Amino acid sequence: MERTLSIIKPDAVQKSVIGKIVDRFESNGLRIAAMKKVKLSAEDAANFYAVHKERPFFKDLVEYMTSGPVVVMVLEGENAVAKNRELMGATDPKEAEPGTIRADFAESIEANAVHGSDSLENAEKEIRFFFAEREIL
Ligand code: GDP
Question: Which pTM was predicted?
Fold first, then answer.
């Protein structure tokens, strides 16, 4: 059993596809162990994406992630980290496999509908960034 962090990003929240995205997880064996809607501050977004701070798109990424509310979730299930990444599809929706969340709902390489932790180690850090243990059920 693993836990991973998922974020429904501002473009997908704005398009009212929260329910459709959550259904992809629940229909594929990932349980919603925690969930909340939040508006990130610039400081939140910069801290969350600190690994990307030297990348040319960092400023745009922070602006985009603070452009509207996001929905943050802890997903739980067997191989949750890899399964979530598989359901999400490639970072660039043009390269995402048909039927993946990004192929179906993303706008662009930046506004790409969802975030998912890329390793078990990062999942633990990212979950702790957003949730207290008592909020994960
Ligand atoms: P992920 O793990 O698939 O989300 O991809 P990365 O960790 O490489 O990038 C983090 C996020 O930064 C992506 O999900 C995009 O929102 C954004 N991003 C990645 N590459 C680019 C890029 O080349 N240009 C822009 N504008 N944003 C990008």
Answer: 0.98
